[in-house]
Amino acid sequence: MQSKYDLIAQDLLSKIKHQQYAAGTFLPSEKQLGDLYSTSRETIRKALGQLEQQGLIQKIRGKGSIILDLQRLTFPISGIESFKELTQHQKLVSETQVLKQIKTMSPSHFNGLTLTSQPAHYLERLRLINQVPVILDCDYLLSPPITTLPKTAGENSLYEYIEQELGLTISYASKVVTVERIPEVTAKLLGLGSEQLAVVVRSLVYLEDTTLFQLTISIHRPDQFKFVDFARRTKVTQEA
Amino acid sequence: MQSKYDLIAQDLLSKIKHQQYAAGTFLPSEKQLGDLYSTSRETIRKALGQLEQQGLIQKIRGKGSIILDLQRLTFPISGIESFKELTQHQKLVSETQVLKQIKTMSPSHFNGLTLTSQPAHYLERLRLINQVPVILDCDYLLSPPITTLPKTAGENSLYEYIEQELGLTISYASKVVTVERIPEVTAKLLGLGSEQLAVVVRSLVYLEDTTLFQLTISIHRPDQFKFVDFARRTKVTQEA
DNA sequence: CAGTGGTCTAGACCACCTT
DNA sequence: AGGTGGTCTAGACCACTGC
Fold it and tell me: Is the CB of A9 less than 7 A from some atom of nucleic acid strand D?
């Protein structure tokens, strides 16, 4: 269910996108927004907090909430987003080729962690944008919780299948991004020549109840790789 | 000033780090924490929200807040952190060589954006970890707001100088990470051979009042580059 | 001084999980 | 049914900004 502050955040987001609130100007004050949406100030503040988090506005004490103008290049690739969601937002012509889909055991080491090996669906997919291969995705989908994996799920959207067909809630991920030399076979798949350096993103993805369900190794063509991020300075002192 | 929920978050963080609350177990309930800290539940919720954001806990409705165990490898390199802060957290032997420090004009194009060129301090610094060069940082510090820049600021911590000496508050940044071919001179500085591929991070950094104050081009040795991230799945539908 | 956002409270109702 | 977190309210006081 959508909460009231989610709806307000979405409404403000769309009003910002459609320039009803212009970049560089201030939003109505929290009190005014409370009157507009007939709600309390704390609820408005939750909505504004979401927008601030995403880098759409900046709150300034004593003045108001100003609309930022970074979105021009902020397709947030940070976060957890499926390839399908990503390309759709950016309106790209994309294609996915399923190279392999078998049942196997998950690896026992990943990102420097030791994991218990367990049954999994292994999926290997080549991603193309404008007919050019850009990413090779190697996924382990653990069973449980992913017991069955129809062939169409990999071809279309894996996350759509998991969230909508299986009714699971994807919650968070930890990722490690490195640049590595890759095997010649892999380089060929991505259309790389003698240069075998690629960007490798290794992710562990978890459900709402903290169950690990996916391990992914994502190999990107370096010349096509672009990672856009918005970050806020954290004050939390991570002292020893 | 530290707010009550900041203090509570820090206290919980340190208790988690010192294993007083063990990974995999539940924190006391929000009600109990409210009694423990003699505060209202909403205040406790703000503290827990911070910890959840950083990936230290996962809240589960109907059950409680469980302590996650990812931190083992989560030195959050995402976010805005100075080189000094970064190396200190990880207890590394680091060194900074200032190669150049001059007054000039800032570039008018950056990350695909058109900016107004203005006076700036240009700073070029080579970063070494364990005596090995790993990063070349090229900074433009705009004046205003950075009018004077003592030589020591670049050698020690630039952010310390800006936040503590100048009393400015660093707030947010937008970054673009790519892999690029770099000039031979630059490659030599980083100790790279014929291979001239490097990871390039271009950042725009802003103050609390949305003033842009820093443009940075950070060139990383690919074999030393490692980016660790924690991400939560966002529900906010960024529809057309 | 009035207006703004930042924090905090004490209560309420709900949805969910467990027993 | 009782405990948990998720949402929402109506009010309060504070710190900061601007005039």
Answer: no
